[in-house]
Write a structure and sequence with these properties.
There is one protein chain. Helix content is 22%, strand content 32%. The chain is of the alpha/beta class. The protein has one domain: 3-Layer(aba) Sandwich (Rossmann fold), CATH 3.40.50.720. The strands form 2 sheets. A 3-stranded parallel sheet has the order 1-2-3, sandwiched between helices. It has a two-stranded antiparallel sheet with strand order 4-5. The longest helix is centred in the N-terminal third of the chain and has 12 residues. It is globular. The two termini are 22 Å apart. The model has no long low-confidence stretch (mean pLDDT 81). Nicotinamide-adenine-dinucleotide binds next to α1 and β2. Nicotinamide-adenine-dinucleotide (NAD) binds next to α1 and β2.
Amino acid sequence: MKFVVTGGLGFIGSYIVKHLLSKDHQVTVVDNFWRGRLENLTGFEEKINFQKLDILDFDALKEILNDSDGRPFVKVNKLSLNIEIEITNEKLTN
Ligand SMILES: NC(=O)c1ccc[n+]([C@@H]2O[C@H](COP(=O)([O-])OP(=O)(O)OC[C@H]3O[C@@H](n4cnc5c(N)ncnc54)[C@H](O)[C@@H]3O)[C@@H](O)[C@H]2O)c1
């Protein structure tokens, strides 16, 4: 499946990207470099489609999301620090 991970160069996002790649999914990473760093995905550069974009640019984001199959929904359990990734198939349509 094709996924979009916004904030994919950040702390949590980069782990989600690596998890999805390990499951052989195609991943588009959207980040504006506000706090993210390409170094968080060292070794994975060739495997991702990186889009430098501010998610407030809604039209551009919508275009990218419409070309994806789903987006990961992350639930963080603060007590155990487990990160659970649930694959949804929602698309942004409005
Ligand atoms: N080593 C560590 O333990 C460590 C390291 C970093 C962060 N943390 C913790 O992790 C938590 C934060 O992690 P996170 O992944 O939520 O935050 P993050 O800041 O690491 O990631 C957010 C990402 O979203 C991007 N972003 C922000 N606004 C954007 C926009 N408008 N458009 C596009 N991209 C945008 C940023 O550039 C960044 O890459 C904090 O609690 C922090 O203390 C821990």
